[in-house]
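Open question from group meeting: does this chain pack into something compact, or does most of it stay loose? Before anyone orders reagents, we agreed to write out a predicted structure and look at it together. Recording both the input and the output here so the notebook holds the full record.
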Amino acid sequence: MTRNDRVVREEQARDKADYDPDAVAPDAKQSAAGKAFLGIDPGKIPPYHDDAMQARITRIGNSLVPQYQKDLPDTDPAKLRFRFQLVDEPKWRDVMIWPSGVILVPRQVVERMENDSQLAAVLADGVAGLLEDQYYRLRSLARKAGAAQIASGAIPFAGFVGMLAASNAYAAVVQLAHEQSARVSLGLMSDAGYTLAEAPKAWWILSTKETKPMVDVQLPERVQSLYEALGTTWRER
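Structure tokens returned:
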């Protein structure tokens, strides 16, 4: 595939997975069957209206976007138009990224974070995921696996993530993607002046459905990887 072909396909994928909060009905809801077979449809995720909370995630999120991205002209296909949108999704314990640059942030996640640095860790992971082109790498994996319908764009990104989760090869790639985005997210946090030690705490808190003391929660693998990175690579400013 030539670079121009890839740019066109990326732009098409961005258009399909864009999110316009003003275009979503307040009572929009996707059925469980729809999520299972078609993946999450961003057009059926209503925004959550809380001006103070929305302003907070926008402020923190924008502070994490690398300056080189901000400096790119709008005509550059490499520029990502980052937008951080608050949504009401009680079952999510992470942000959801879309190739258009939209990062959907559950208000339940925001409410569980104890400080701005913890929230920055979660948002930085989303920013890192987009910067690392995870969406397109996972599409490529689906294409190689022979999932022609999925790879053609007939099924959204979130849909084939769910459908291929049982694949050992796919799971391994996803794990590596998580580890890479975690490393990149620490760099984004460092550049923006946040406290890196709060990053593993944030994911430790979010590793359970309900809030529990961290001493009562087994150390998640993702958290362990972050602590190892902090101990071997990063030093607080």
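Observations to bring back to the group:
The chain has twelve helices and three strands.
Residues 36 and 213 are 32 Å apart (CA to CA).
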